Amino acid sequence: MFASWKEKIGIGKKKEEVLKAPVSGKTVAMKEVNDPTFSEEMLGKGIAILPSEGKIASPVDGTVDMVFDTKHAISMTSDSGIQILIHVGLDTVTLKGEPFKAHIESGQKVKTGDLLLEFDMEAIRSAGLETITPIVICNSDAYENMTAYTGKEVAAGEPILVLKK
User: Is 72 a catalytic residue?
Assistant: First the structure.
C-alpha cells in the first residue's frame, strides 16, 4: 500500500536528467581524450565529442556562469543544478580567442539549443591542435550514476548523458 503511494508522490524515486549534445559529431569516452585533465576526470566525469561542425549549443536550460576570455570554454549550470564545462578543443587557450565567437555572456539565461559559441575547426587544426570537445559534469559526484552514449554519431540536441541522483 505505502509503496504505490510513495511512487505516486515521488518518494524514493530516482531523479533522472538528460544532457543533450552541444555539438554534432562522434561521441567518445572521456578516457580517450588526449589530455590527463579530462581523461583522468580531474574536473569531473563526462563525455567528449569529435565535432563535425563549428557550433556549440546549450545542452540544457540554465545559466551561463562564465565565458572564458579566450572563448574556448564555457561553464554553465542547468536549472536543476548540473554544473557543466564545455571545452572546445585541447590547448585551444593558446589561440587567444582567435577562431572563436561567443554569442552569449556570463550570467545569461539560455534554453536547450540556444547558440553559445561558433569556432573555426580548420583554424584550430591548422594550429596543430585537436578539436575534440570534452563536456564535463563538474559536480558529477552529486550523481549516483551517469550513462554516456559513446561511439555514435549525434546531432546537436540529441541525448548524450543520462544522470541519476
Answer: no
pLDDT grade for 14, boundaries at 50, 70 and 90: low
Give the pLDDT score at 15.
87
DSSP for the chain reads -HHHHHHHHTTTPPPEEEEEPSS-EEEEEGGGSSSHHHHTTSS-EEEEEEESSSEEE-SSSEEEEEE-TTSSEEEEEETT--EEEEE-SSSGGGGTTTTEEES--TT-EE-TT-EEEEE-HHHHHHTT----EEEEETTGGG-SEEEE--SSEE-TTSEEEEEE-
Q: Of these residues, 20, 71, 72, 87, which one is catalytic?
A: 87
> How far apart, in whole angstroms, are the C-alpha atoms of residue 43 and residue 56?
20
Tens of pLDDT, residue by residue over 115-146, are 999 999 999 999 999 999 999 999 999 999 99
Whole-number pLDDT of residue 5 = 46
- Joined together, the cell numbers standing for residue 99 give 577562431
